Predict the structure.
Amino acid sequence: MSSLINGYKVGAIKRAIEHYIHPNNKRSDIIPVYGNWYIGITNNAQIRKAQHKKEKSTKALYFNYWDAGNKLTAVEIEKYFHLLGMKDKATVGGAKSDSSYVYIFKLRTTIVDDIAHLFGLVK
């Protein structure tokens, strides 16, 4: 029964991410280009966002995260989007054992994204 619930959670988070980056939501251009997005897993999404902004010199625009419940589920979702072209470091699942959050943000931004960020419309 647990794997059935886990399967529903994986599917729900995959759909939520697909919806989040869909062009209808004004976060992608005509089609979602997975290579413009970064995906990772963490045990604290807000701290990880701050680390990306500080250590990796990125704006981390359109940052969002989902609770996958455990590291195995988070890694499964992360691998799925890597296969579609989302970026991350060279390894998968190298996060701490208590990492259960899957997070994404847009790597490559457009001039419209940059202007919206400048005026505080995008965080």
Q: What stands out?
A: The chain has a mean pLDDT of 81. The helical segments are 2-21, 45-55, 71-84, 111-118. The chain has one domain: 2-118. The radius of gyration is 14 Å.
